[in-house]
Amino acid sequence: MKEEFKLIQKNKKAYFNYEIIEELECGIELVGTEVKSVREGRCSFSDSYVQAKDMQLMLIGFLIQPYSHGNIFNHQSDRPRRLLAHKMEIKKFQRKVNEKGFTLVPTEIYIKGNLVKMKIALARGKNVRDKKEAIKERDLNMDARRQLRELNY
Predict the structure, then answer these.
(1) Element containing residue 15 per DSSP (H, E)
(2) Is 78 helix (H, G, I), strand (E, B) or coil?
(3) Phi/psi of residue 151, each to 5°?
């Protein structure tokens, strides 16, 4: 039996601004209206990051819009949310962030079965030269695909 996997959103800016070293799948501690809002795709990665302290991973700046059919018990949209992972994984990531100058960024949010999951990544910031090379490589690939498409017609 295959588990249902539905990608809600991908943080493309994280892949552009950071060099991804290692990824980890985490659960998110959400309230009911947040889950319904995420299922509708009403969330945003804008300027969000993960903070590791006191053996906990906290998701800061991740925006989940209020649920459209919610009432007075609707959630606060930009509150910090706890990420759920094994203690050893949290310890390993916290050590790397403290020692080597890495940062933790959220890269994907998706639904796996009935659960909302988030993929976070241990990342190192790219400098301007690396970003320009990534843009140049992307443009060259686009041109090559375009020329192949024109040759086939």
Answers:
(1) helix 12-17
(2) coil
(3) -70, -35
